[in-house]
Amino acid sequence: MSGHAAIVHDLALETYGFGGDHPFNPLRIRLTLELCETLGLLDGYPFVASEPATGEDLTTVHSLTYVRMVQKAGRGEGDLWELMHYGLGTGDNPIFPDMHDACARVVGAVLEACRLVMRGAATHAMCISGGLHHAMRSKASGFCVYNDAGVAIARLRQENPDVRIAYVDTDAHHGDGVQWMFYDDPAVLTVSMHESGRYLFPGTGGIDERGRNGGIGYSVNVPLEPFTDDESWISCFEAVVPEVLRAFEPDLILSQNGCDGHVLDPLTHLSATTHLYEYIPRRVHELAHELCDGRWVATGGGGYDIWRVVPRAWSALWAAVSHQELPEKVPEDWPAARGWESPVKLPSLMRDDPADYPIAEHATEIADHNRRTTEELLERVLPLIQKCVSP
Amino acid sequence: MLLVEDSMTRGVVVLSPETTAGEALALCRERRIRHLPVLREGGLLGIVSDRDLRSAAPALGDPGRTEALRNLQVADVMTRDVVITRPDAPIEEAANTMREKRIGCLPVIEDDMLVGILTSSDVMEALVRLIGANEPGSRLVASMPDRPGTLAGAAGIFGVLGINIVSVVAGPRQEPPPGEQGPWRAAIFRIDTINPTEAIETLERAGYSVLWPPEP
User: Fold this and answer.
1) How far is A201 from chain B (nearest CA, A)?
2) Is the pLDDT of residue B138 over 70?
3) Cys bridge to A389: A48, A104, A186, B214, which one at CB 3.0-4.6 A?
4) Nearest alpha carbon to residue A254 among A110, A363, A119
5) Does the pLDDT of residue B177 top 90, yes or no?
6) Residues of A87-96 as b/e, b for ≥16 C-beta within 10 angstroms?
7) CB B21 within 8 A of CB B77
8) CA dist A95 → A81, A111, A143, A267 (Å)
9) Nearest Cα to A146, choosing from A192, A204, A105, A112?
10) Predicted pLDDT of residue A2
11) C-alpha triplet A201, A207, A211: angle, nearest 5°
C-alpha cells in the first residue's frame, strides 16, 4: 500500500477557537504539528495551502440566513438573543472576532484536501483542523460552527455527480450534523461510532437512526457503553465498519478522527488509549486501498486532553496517512523548545503503556453489551446497503 | 402547547357502517393503521380495530373465513360505546384515559364532528418532543429538596453558565439522599451543551445531587 500523502494546513486555520479556557483550544493543533515536526514526520511534506470556503460552498449544506448570522457575529454586530437562536454566543459556541472567516477557512481546507484526493494529486490527505461534525444547517452546536465534512461531501457530489462517499466518524460524540445532512441520501454512507447518547451529548445516534426515505440503511450508528476499552471498541469496529464499507463500495472515504474517547479525556466517559487511535487510521487506510484505490481524507475532531492525548493520537493519524512508522518516544525537546509548559506531566512514550490502564471492573459486561448492539445493528442495516443505487 | 390537537392524527381514514370486514381489513393493511372510526354523516357511530375484525371472522385457514369477511359489516363488530377526547384537552389527560381504560386510540370530537384521532404512537411522539430527545443536548438529572426555589436555583445555574435548557421535566417525589431530610424531587434536564462538567460541579457545590450522567 502506498500513494502520495498531503497535509493541508496553514497558520490561519489556528484562528478557529473560542478563547479563554474554552476546551476547544487551537493550541491542540499547534502542539500536534510541532510534535510531528520534532519527530521528523513532516519532512518532505510541505503544508498545502487552501482558500476559505465561499458562500456558495457553505450554502450547499447551511442556510444563507445562518451564514449571514455568523458573519454578523464575527463583526460584533447582531442581536445576541437572535444569534443565540442560531447557537451563537452560547457557552459552547462563544462569538469571537472574524469567526466567519476562521470557520470558512477550516471548511476550505477540508474541501481542498478532498479535491486533492478526488483529482488524484494525492492518494491520502489530512486536514487536522477539520472534523466539526456537530454543526447543523442553521445552528452552531458543540463547538462547531460550519460543518466542514458536510460542505466537502456536498461539493464533491456536485462536482462529481456519480461519486459515492463513505464518512467514518470515530469521535466519542455522535456525528449528528453530518448524519442529518445526508440522512436521505443513499450515495453518502455515514458511519458513526460513539459513546451512547444516553450519557453523552448530543444524545442521538442510536441504532434506530438508519436514514430516511431513499437513504434508509445509509446512516449507521454504533453507540458504545461508557468505559468501553480498546479491545471492545476495536471488535465493534471490526464487526461493523469493514462490513458496511464493503457493502457500499465507496469511491472515497472521509474519516473524522476525534480522539476524545481516550480515558484521559475530560468530556467523555470512554476508556480508549492511544492504541485505538493508532489502530483505527491504519485500518481505514487498508480499507481505502481495498475499496477505493486508496482515496482517503482524514480530519481531526474532538479531543480535549490537549497535552497528553491529542498530539500523540493525531501524530499517529498522520503517520498512517503518510505511511510512516510511528516513533517510540516523545522527543524531549517537545514542546519545551517553544517555551510551553504543560500543566500536567507529559508522557515520555508515543504509545500508552497498557499496564497504566488496568481492565475496568465491568469490562466483560460492557463488551457483551456492545457486541449485542453491533449484531442487532448489522441485522438492521446490512441488508439495506447496496453497492450502487439505480437512479 | 401539549393539547390533543397538537399531536393528533388528522385526515383520518374512516368507514361507513356498511363497509365489509374484508374491505376494512384491507384498508388496515394498505394504510398500516390499526383503528378505524365508523361514521354516518360525519357523526361518530363507533370504532373498530383490526383485532376486532380478525376475531369476528373464523380463524385463518378456516374455509368459511373469506365468506364471513365478505358478509360481515363493520356495524356488526364495532365498539359502540366509544371513549372520546376533545382537541383542547391536555395531552396528559388523554394519555391517562388511554392508560386507565387500556385503549390504544381516542377519536377526537369537536362540535359532534370527528376532527382526528389520538393514538398511542401520537402520545409517544409528543413525549419525545416534550423531552427534546430529537434535538442535540446532554441529559442531566439533578435531585433537590421538594420546596419552592430549588428548581429555579438549578435553572439559574444553567443561566449563569450560558447554557440553554432544551427541556425540563420534574419527576415524582422520592426519598432524600442519605443524611438529608424531607421529600426530594428529581428534575430531568436536557441542556444544550457538549460540556456539562462545570454545570455538574456547580450544582453539586450548591447542594444538588446529580444522578445522571452516572459517576464512573
Assistant:
1) 5
2) yes
3) A186
4) A110
5) no
6) bbbbbbbbbb
7) yes
8) 12, 24, 11, 21
9) A105
10) 56
11) 95
CB proximity B210 to A under 8 Å: no
Which B residues 153-192 touch A at CB under 8 Å?
161-164, 190, 192
**Who contacts B16 (Cβ-Cβ below 8 Å, separation ≥6)?**
B38, B39, B40, B74
Cell of A23: 476546551
Say if strands A5-8 and B184-191 run parallel, antiparallel, or are unpaired: unpaired
pLDDT tens by residue, A323-370: 999 999 999 989 877 778 899 999 999 999 999 998 888 999 999 999
pLDDT digits over A375-390, tens only? 999 999 999 999 876 5
Contact A315, A295 (CB under 8 A): no
| A228-257 per-position pLDDT tens digit | 999 999 999 999 999 999 999 999 999 999
Q: Which residue of B lies nearest to A94 if distances are taken between CA atoms?
A: B162
pLDDT at res. B216: 60
User: Which of A118-132, A241-255, B59-73, B97-111 is least confident?
Assistant: B59-73
Q: Are strands A165-169 and A47-48 parallel, antiparallel or unpaired?
A: unpaired
Specify the long-range contacts of residues B9-13, CB closer than 8 Å, at least 24 apart. Answer: B9/B116, B9/B117, B9/B118, B9/B119, B9/B122, B10/B115, B10/B116, B12/B37, B12/B114, B12/B116, B12/B117
